[in-house]
């Protein structure tokens, strides 16, 4: 089925309250997911790619990472892939970028985006 037809079918089915249409949309979603997994496999990002994403999303510069990672040289080594993050660095990044306080303790926080599990 051509992509345009699939999109129209899904739009039609989403507006229906008929149980048969609801079952059909679930089946269609599974087919689309299987197709995307086979054609667009996800690769685990490297640490430099992941950090570049975090820096972009949180509007961080290399200078902003110095207090989190230690030194200018260490920031450079981590961003170039020559050094891994220590647990202390990971904790500091988490506190800077994802410290949700009471929400995290209650379990009401979910990560969004490509790195969500």
Give short descriptive properties of this protein.
117 residues; mainly alpha
SSE inventory with pairings:
Elements: H1 3-14, H2 19-39, H3 47-57, H4 62-69, H5 72-79, H6 87-98, H7 102-106
Describe this structure in words.
With 117 residues, this protein is an all-alpha fold. The protein folds into two domains: 3-39, no CATH class; 47-106. It is 66% helix and 0% strand. The chain has helices at residues 3-14, 19-39, 47-57, 62-69, 72-79, 87-98, 102-106. Helix 1 (3-14) runs antiparallel to helix 2 and helix 4 (62-69) crosses helix 5.
Put the structure in a nutshell.
The chain folds into 2 domains: 3-39, no CATH class; 47-106. The chain is 66% helix and 0% strand.
**Average of the residue pLDDT scores:** 83
Q: How many structural domains in the coordinates?
A: 2
**Global Rg:** 21 Å
Helix content: 55-70%
List the uncertain runs.
none
Q: How much beta, percentage-wise?
A: under 5%
| Count of helical stretches | 7
Shape label: elongated
Helix-strand pattern: HHHHHHH
**Total strand count, please?**
0
User: Major β-sheet, in short?
Assistant: none
| Class per helix and strand makeup | mainly alpha
End-to-end separation: 31 Å
């Amino acid at each position: 089925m051509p992509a345009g037809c699939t999109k129209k079918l899904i739009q039609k089915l989403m507006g229906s309250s008929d149980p048969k249409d609801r079952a059909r949309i679930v089946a269609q979603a599974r087919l689309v997911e299987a197709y995307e997994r086979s054609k667009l496999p996800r690769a685990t990002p490297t640490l430099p790619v992941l950090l570049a994403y975090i820096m972009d999303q949180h509007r961080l510069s290399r200078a902003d990472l110095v207090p989190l990672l230690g030194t200018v040289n260490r920031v450079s080594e981590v961003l170039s892939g020559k050094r891994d993050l220590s647990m202390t660095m990971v904790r500091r990044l988490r506190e800077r970028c994802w410290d949700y306080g009471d929400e995290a303790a209650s379990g009401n926080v979910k990560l969004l985006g490509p790195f969500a599990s």
